[in-house]
Amino acid sequence: MSSIISVSGLNKTYSNGLRALEDINLDIYEGEIFALLGPNGAGKTTLIGIVCGIVTATSGKVLAAGYDIVKQYRAARSKIGLVPQELHLGVFDTVLATVRFSRGLFGRGPNDAYLEQVLRDLSLWGKRHDKIMTLSGGMKRRVMIAKALSHEPEILFLDEPTAGVDVELRRDMWQLVRRLRDSGVTIILTTHYIEEAEQMADRIGVINHGELIVVEEKSALMKKLGKKQLTLQLQTPMNEIPAALGGWSLQLNAGGNELEYTFDTNEESTGIPALLRKLSELGIAFSDLHTEQSSLEDIFVSLIDERSADDDSAAVNA
Amino acid sequence: MSKSARVSAFNHHGVWAIYLYELIRFKRTIWQSLVTPVITTSLYFVVFGAAIGARMSEVDGVSYGAFIVPGLMLLAVLTESLTTAAFSIYMPRFVGTIYEILSAPLSSLEIVFAYVGATASKAIILAVIILLTSTLFVPLQIQHPLWMVAFLLLTAATFSLFGFIIGILSRNFEQLSFVPALVITPLTFLGGAFYSIDILPPVWRTISLFNPMVYLISGFRWSFYGISDVSVGVSLSMTLAFFLSGLIVVTWIFRTGYRLKT
User: In chain A, which residue's Cα lies nearest the Cα of B22?
Assistant: First the structure.
């Protein structure tokens, strides 16, 4: 896979001393949906801002579509579309006028047939002569996307595309993003809705305190870090785990009423059949059982927690 | 693996998009933009030309009403350039739409060219309207039309640049209107828009020479009537100097991203 964005050794320190990004190295592959996950203030927007030319990097290098974003900014920027987090729109403009403006701004000659297609895809064609101030929040969000697509970019940045958007529109947005990916556009989206990344992304990067903690294929990430749990509701409470069950990693919960077995999804055999056989040998009866797989959210939280624990201990040591 | 960039060296679509956008904004407020100056100019002629001018003698062989026409035009051009340019770049910063301009494949010079060009165009349209209005009141002659156009263009461009700078540096609306209201208008009134600085006492005449407006107005008036307070060469070089200094400041702002980028 060839990378369409290549970030190396990127640092950003704001004038107030805030280190927003620390030595970021990242490759985004052509045609993928890449989700950048992280809590608020982690540096997601700063990273996007640098690639798009809104924020100046302190040091480091970024190539977009093979062009250096500083030295060859014209070529690089004409390949990139950006949908920022906030709804920044001239409220007196009409939908069609603002989309035409964006296309021109990015150096493209008029092409109303293409713009019509974009507006139709976003269900905005019927509103093309309406002033932006008369549109709903969801429609304004779509106008922002239409503007970003107006110059036929190869790379699309979506900064928190579904923040403050209702459930239905969020599903629409996901469909739209997939359609765009199918048409060959590489998509980088930031989100703090884990569900969103889980639904859409091919690969996931987790950023926290300006550092890229992990970059991994979504499925590999879930597999690598994901854990499964089997919970058994016991018929009679247990005070301690019998020694005969020492071969399994078990834990007693809910005052001895629940037996919890944690197992790795990577293992060839889960050990569940053997455990259940052993339980019936020992005469331990249970009334119910269920298994649970950790979601991306759990993985994310554990990653972030791990990091802040590291930071804390580092601070103590220092 | 950086490829060599095969894109045109000048993003004319982008410049045109901004230029057109700004002129459409002007069209939206066309009545306010054009009727106001016509009324204001007419009032000036009634008050200064008819009421006061009737009691005043000719200035260097030019009737007082005709004498103030270049000053009036320039006053309008300065104010319009400054406020419109300041507003045109302050609003995107305020509303947030500036992100799109900054992320577009446009050089800083192209951005300035587009905004300053649009504002200067508006200011010149305004100047022409005032000129036409004034023909209803006083007989006009333009001895050096080419120079008149040159001074007009240069002044409009210069003050659009200054306005652009104000629009970038302003942190709020108050600062945005501070410079035009409290600096430019007084300087223009005291810069010989309505009188020749020759009629001032020597001390005030010397002080006036530190007022940049004197040079602009004097040169512009010379292109009409061939009379001037200071020599035309000095006027022209001062006007050019203002223009260049504006250009330097704007280039510095974009190069450093001051108040534009973080």
Answer: A101
Other Cβ atoms less than 10 A from the Cβ of A184: the count is 9
Q: Which of residues 75 through 104 in chain A touch B, CB cutoff 8 A?
A: 75-78, 80, 82, 84, 86, 88-92, 97, 100-104
What three-state secondary structure class fits A37?
A: strand
**Res. B195: pLDDT tops 50:** yes
Q: Exposure of B40 by Cβ count < 10 A (0-12 exposed, 13-18 middle, 19+ buried)?
A: middle
Query: Which residue in chain B is spatially nearest to A57 when comparing CA positions?
Result: B262
The angle subtended at Cα A196 by Cα A311 and Cα A8, nearest 5°, is 50
Pairwise CA distance, residues B250 & B139, whole Å: 40
Q: Determine the straight-line distance between the first and last CA of chain B, rounded to whole angstroms.
A: 28
Find residues 30-49 of chain A whose CB sits inside 8 Å of chain B: 49
| A177 token code pair | 């993003």
DSSP bridge pairs for A211: A208
The residue ranking higher by pLDDT, B234 or B34, is B234
Interface of A with B in 50-79 (CB under 8 A): 52-56, 63, 66-68, 71-78
Q: What distance in Å separates the CA atoms of residue B5 and residue B20, rounded to the nearest whole number?
A: 28
Question: CA dihedral in degrees (A137, A40, B256, B107; nearest 10)?
Answer: -40
Q: Going by DSSP bridges, is the β-strand pair A186-191/A203-208 parallel, antiparallel, or unpaired?
A: unpaired
ipTM of the modeled complex: 0.85
How far apart are the CA of A192 and the nearest CA of chain B, in angstroms? 22
What's the pLDDT tens digit per position in A281-311?
A: 888 888 888 877 766 667 777 777 776 665 5
| CB atoms B99 and A68 under 8 Å | no
Residues of A in contact with B261 (CB under 8 A): 54-56
Torsion of CA A229, A235, A238, A244, to 10 degrees: -70
pLDDT of residue A23: 94
- A191-241 confidence digits (pLDDT tens): 877 778 888 899 999 888 899 988 988 888 777 666 677 888 888 888 888
Q: What is the pTM of this model?
A: 0.81
